[in-house]
Amino acid sequence: MLLQKTEKARLELSPGVRTLSLRERSLLLLADGKSLSDLQAMYNGIGAQIVDNLMRQGYLTGPAALPDAPAPTPAAATAPLVVSEPPTASTAANPSDALRSLAGTRMYLFDICERMFARRDPALARQFHEALRGARDRASMLDVGEALLEEVAQMAGPERAQTIRDRMEQLLPQEPASTASPA
After folding, report:
1. Which pLDDT tens digit goes with each residue over 32-55?
2. Helix (H) and strand (E) counts in the chain
3. Which residues touch 150 (CB under 8 Å, ≥6 apart)?
4. Which residues partner with 5 through β-bridges?
5. What letter would DSSP give residue 59?
6. Among 68, 46, 66, CA closest to 3
7. Helix axes 22-31, 47-56, angle to 10 degrees
């Protein structure tokens, strides 16, 4: 089942509105058109509980009106969502290709920026925020990420920077395969 954001979710994600936790907000950002199972597998399996809460609160809904899909019964609408298989360590550490996105990467780097720089160097934090907002493709996101990682390495050490780099690479969309045709 593919999930869609409701109008309530769009209002929550608008600037200046913050009623949900960071995890709930990041899941909402990724929700449109993602499968239920992909979202449930997020956050080492806690995604199932978050998705359930967001659906009950009216932030997420199933696809609008599919011609072949029967209308949900009231019991099915209130039943808790269950993950069919618990996520393994490998699936929790490596998000599927469906969960890779620039938006998810941007949210992760925004969070790192807030944690590392907001109090220590607010001007640098603002600079990175603007750069992250302007990063609209994989290459520009990598450029901003590498600059941020250089600052993290100076502030917290190369090990911390490497941990962040590894996670950033897991979240970024894959590079498109070369489309060169044989001559």
Report:
1. 777 777 777 777 777 788 888 888
2. 10, 2
3. 161
4. 60
5. S
6. 66
7. 80
Q: Do residues 82 and 48 make contact, with C-beta atoms less than 8 angstroms apart?
A: yes
Classify each residue of 32-67 as buried b or exposed e, where b means 16 or more C-beta atoms within 10 Å of its C-beta: eebebbbbbbbbebebbebbbbbbeeebbeeeeeee
Q: Residue 31 is encoded by which pair of tokens?
A: 């929700």
- Residue at token pair 């990467």: 105
Closest CA to 150 of 131, 166, 164, 136: 164
Write b or e for each residue in 146-172: b if 16 or more Cβ atoms lie within 10 A of its Cβ, otherwise e: eebbebbbeeeeeeebeebbebbeebb
How many Å apart are CA 55 and CA 167, to the nearest integer? 28
Instruction: Please report where in the chains the tokens 């209308």 appear, as a residue.
Output: 71
Cα 144 to Cα 135: distance, rounded to the nearest angstrom: 7
Q: What is the pTM of this model?
A: 0.46
